[in-house]
Batch of 3 targets.
Target 1
Amino acid sequence: MNNENQTVLSGTQGKSAAPEVGTPKRTKEIIAKYGFSFKKSLGQNFLIDGNILNNIVAAAELDETKGALEIGPGIGALTQRLADAAGKVTAIEIDRRLIPILRDVFADESHVSVIHDDVLKLDLKKLFEEQFSDVSGVSVVANLPYYVTTPILMKLLEERLPLQHIVVMIQKEVAQRMAAKPGGKEYGSLSVAVQYYCVPQLVCMVPNTVFIPQPNVDSAVIKLSVREKPAVDVPDEAFFFRVVQASFAQRRKTLANNLTAFVGKDHREALNALLIGINIDPIRRGETLSLEEFAELSKALLSSGLVKV
Ligand code: SAM
């Protein structure tokens, strides 16, 4: 992270005395004052509803001993609520034009830091050490840019950051896939990946009328409580995720057919025997397997030597 990119704002900590940013009137005023124009390519849809902001912040279970990492503060509607609820707030914003606005809005909040950067390029481990060394726990709280929701969440999870909760507004269908249980059409490799690291909970569905400008999709707030250790024990995590991907490769195909493409046609018989040996019927589909069954399957495939690791 470049220090030039970081704005640590000086002033006093506490309940913000500034007018509420997340209202239609104030948002329009700020946009007009700074001549700001929305960039669709950056997923800029700003929240203008106090109840939704309350729901998001309440789900994050913050207090003055805790830190909040916000990705994409925009003009600061959520940041302002986080500044009231947490002891330390760090917000990462990619759009240079928003930095002076945020600097003005949070001029009196010493516990709010704004970093101008692309979250996908940032060294988050280093950022955590620099920003959150003196808090008792950190949660990510954000209204995420929808064009990069999955890469951002997978980066947060795969880097094993010391997070308590991730409370994010995302596209409704993506939230439903993350929280889906085995057996339904929404359950897939994203559900397995998220549930491997977290316990998901849908907080609320959100209509598109609470944003300026309104997105073309419905939204939802999801809370991911990060597990202390993954949901299942696997000897080779990368291999586990390869098996999961392969099992969902073509959703209408049976597990045996999808996995034959993974192990090679010559091993079809051995694969069937392996599945039966771990009590998984080869004609089942990937979408019916629990995380425990995927773990068993990846362990059995790993020790069978049928696939090159
Ligand atoms: N938090 C604000 C709110 O709720 O009103 C704005 C949310 S808006 C949906 C998403 C924000 O993420 C925008 O401000 C956008 O510029 C920012 N953004 C987009 N891509 C980003 C990235 N890769 N890294 C950091 N911020 C990003």
Note: The chain has two domains: 3-226, 237-304.
Target 2
Amino acid sequence: MNKSEFILKLKKTGAIKFGEFTLKSGVISPFYFDLRGVISYPEVLDGVVELLVEKVKNMEFDLIAGIPYTALPIATLVASKLNKPLIYIRKEEKSYGSGGKVIGKFQKGNKCLVIDDLITTGASKIESAEEFERQGIKVKDFVVIIDRSIQGKIDLAKRNYRLHSLISLNFILETLEKHNLISNSKILEIQNFTSKPTKNSNKNKVTNQLTKKVKDKIHQKQSNLILSLDVTKQQDFFEILDKVGDQIVMLKTHIDIITDFDEKFIPKLLKYAKKQNFFILEDRKFADIGNTVNYQYKEGVYKIADWADFVTAHLIAGAGTLHGLFDNLEGKSAFVLARMSSQGNLINENYTRKCFEIARQFPQFITGFIGHGKNAIDIQRFKSKFPGNELLLVPGVKLKRGHDNLGQQYLTVKDAMDGGADCIIVGRGILKSSNPRSEAKLYRDLAWKIYQKNSKE
Ligand code: S5P
């Protein structure tokens, strides 16, 4: 089977589609390639395996990897034909932080050729290469069946990986045009779409009105600093706030740790918020069903809805939590925990993606995400998947990397800000200092400097 015949077969099986499709990144695409079904058509499967074998047989490698799920059965057949060992990264195990698990036999220093079905940006390829490299496997070459944009090759080249593709989008369009299987207007639409950068093309879309309010205050106060004021006595609380309040854009509270909480606390806090011009984020981490969080938010001792500008929420219980909090309420919304900073936390890529899906559906409820990562690149990758213009708040930040003895992991201010953080959340880094005011100023200046520099680029 030659490449044109393969394309025609793909079209026939429904693997090439034209219409309006929301990609993982949130971008709306006028075309969609779905090669998952290829395995059910022996002739097409044989065809693509034959083409791949031809493409890679003279390359230098010891192992073949397939990226699950789509490329794995295809890579298996290629490996078998070339008599090479196959490996892959188990997808379910690939939770953020813990890393994926490589299945199959290999030796440190082995060179691995990685096969995938498609490439749009290089992000997921780089992620899997990093995982192999952590295990001592060398990765240099990627082979994809369809290259649907120029971005992928650029992204990989920046990291010194080579991309080989069987067929390009242009070749697909030419072949379909030759056989009258696509209209000229569709071709123009697709070319117009692909000539725009894929990355960030939806990032300017305002999806949550409150993000602008926070951004404006960040600029007004020239501060990306959120103080996590985790102390248990009113006196300590207000003493620190006195010294630090003018340095911060937002104050993060855990209202339920204040031992001597009384009815005077909230009015006093609100006075500070007004005078020192900061938002209040109550880090309640709502996580229950809608009906329960509705009570937790509006009732009880703290009546959080009355005074907190923002609250944090987990979406483990689904979108009902957000409805329970914000239905019929104007001007309030949440920061959702899409990743966590603590070691061994159970959030994985799939969960994070589901959080973004909910945000795409209910943008009015989500001003931003809380997230963390291995380093700046990892955080950037996380942020690049936000569905709209949501803000990124990064906790677990100190001047030096490290951890506490209860699993908290710290990145530096630079890691977080280079990762694209809009704000850093700092607790003990400031609270435990002998001079919280000058320490807060240090964090603030550091973050603001990097933020300004990165916004110019
Ligand atoms: O993943 C997270 C999310 C949050 S909101 N990791 C976190 O540490 N936090 C909160 O940030 C945590 O509840 C605490 O209030 C603050 C970090 O405090 P620090 O003293 O470790 O800086």
Note: Residues 228, 230, 254, 283, 312, 337, 340-341, 370, 372, 395-396, 408, 425-429 surround 6-sulfanyluridine-5'-phosphate (CB under 6 Å).
Target 3
Amino acid sequence: MNRKDACSRLSVCTGDITRLEVDAVVNAANNSLLGGGGVDGAIHKAAGPELLDLARTLGGCPTGEARVTPGFRLPARWIIHTVGPVWRGGTQGEPELLRRAYRNSLQLALDKGVRTIAFPAISTGVYGYPKVPAARIAVESALEVAAQFERILFCTYSERDEAVYRQVIEELCT
Ligand code: AR6
């Protein structure tokens, strides 16, 4: 698939990722997988307590890796929990860890037969990763495998963040 066709499978929107009717939503979790604030808190709240019950059996998740659970009460069938890096100035392997979080999430989604998937802006909230370089890693990782998905959605939580993704997609797609 050429770059233009791959790009046509990407979308950006602003809103609550827990409401999306996609095969899988990705959670920006922490190493415990036991919930937290931000998008993680929203996903646990919307999915219901069964998610925490199951998460307790998973034994956590190293940074850059991903784990899958059912979506429980979400419209999405699956939740892919990944752990992005905490930003420590960019010299502690953060870009590579963030790339691995995206790639491992996408691979796990493919293993589950997912055709439509939505990502939040992993690591760019509490974990402090700068938004533009994070969006570049997100979009580059998605383009690598876009041919195998129907749609890869970047679900931001503000119009300003949405504009960042649109800018990065324009940069990488034209
Ligand atoms: N839908 C979509 N995006 C959201 C939502 C939502 N409902 N809520 C927040 N965001 P963050 P991180 C955006 O902090 O930086 C948790 O406590 C938010 O605006 O959720 O990877 C975990 O347990 C931001 O752009 O995740 C970890 O301890 C993006 O989601 C830690 O935070 C990511 O922000 C992970 O930090």
Note: The first strand starts at residue 10 and ends at 14.
